[in-house]
Amino acid sequence: MSVKTSFPRALAACFALCLFAFGAVAQTDSTRPRQVAQATQPDGSHRLETDVFVVSEATPASVSRYETELVKPRLIAPRLFEFNQMMMAAIDTRLGSPYVYGTEGPRVFDCSGFVWSVFQSAGVNFERGTARHFWANFNPVSEDEKYKFGTLVFFNNLKHVGIVADENGFYHASTSQGVTYSTFSGYWGSRITGFRRVPLPAVTLAD
Which candidate in 14, 18, 46, 111 is catalytic? Predict the structure, then answer.
């Protein structure tokens, strides 16, 4: 057999073998179990990396609390937060100070003197006066403001005043204990006259 006739036959045989090999590989790959990477979501469930996701501007009801908090804007005004920190620091430095009528510090206080000195230390300036004077000059509060930190709470027909800590209690200069924290339960809760809010500078409330 000549070279001219044997070469085309050999070439055709190689081509046929290649087709057969490719077919076998494809068949094997189609029957082989696929290994798909999985990712763990924040709620502990799994999803396939090949899953299709639809991006929506709306927050679906099924989105977890964790995922919602990631995009939730911060609602606390930083300067108001800092102001409350200064108020709390001023209160802390006065805790345990003795009560002396008609004084506003720096080491002894009466009830209105304590309130006045705390706000002064936090940068809010107003006229020093009695509990009755504060009641007459400061703003009434809404129901949801009554037990917010910094609200003034008045007792015994405007004879005593303190600074609300939260719904459980308040800070004040007690005649028997000096500057202290007391709860609203029992004695003090039954003697509340009302609440007022000290106007704060606009810059304090800015973002």
Answer: 111
Two structure tokens written together for 140: 């009434």
DSSP alpha helices (H): ranges in the chain? 3-31, 65-71, 78-94, 111-121, 131-137, 202-205
- Tell me: cis bond preceding 8? Omega within 30 of 0 counts: no
Name residues whose C-beta falls within 8 Å of residue 93's C-beta, 6 or more positions apart in sequence.
none
Domain membership of residue 160 as a residue range: 78-205
Q: How many domains does the chain have?
A: 1
In a domain, 148, yes or no: yes
Quick: pLDDT tens for 66-120.
Answer: 444 444 444 455 688 899 999 999 999 999 999 999 999 999 999 999 999 999 9
14 annotated active-site = no
Q: What are phi and psi of 57, to 5 degrees?
A: -75, -25
Q: Would residue 154 count as lying in a domain?
A: yes
Torsion of CA 125, 148, 82, 136, to 10 degrees: -10
Catalytic, 172? Answer: yes
pLDDT tens digits, residue range 106-158?
A: 999 999 999 999 999 999 999 999 999 999 999 999 999 999 999 999 999 99
Active site residue 111: yes
Both tokens of residue 2?
């000549």
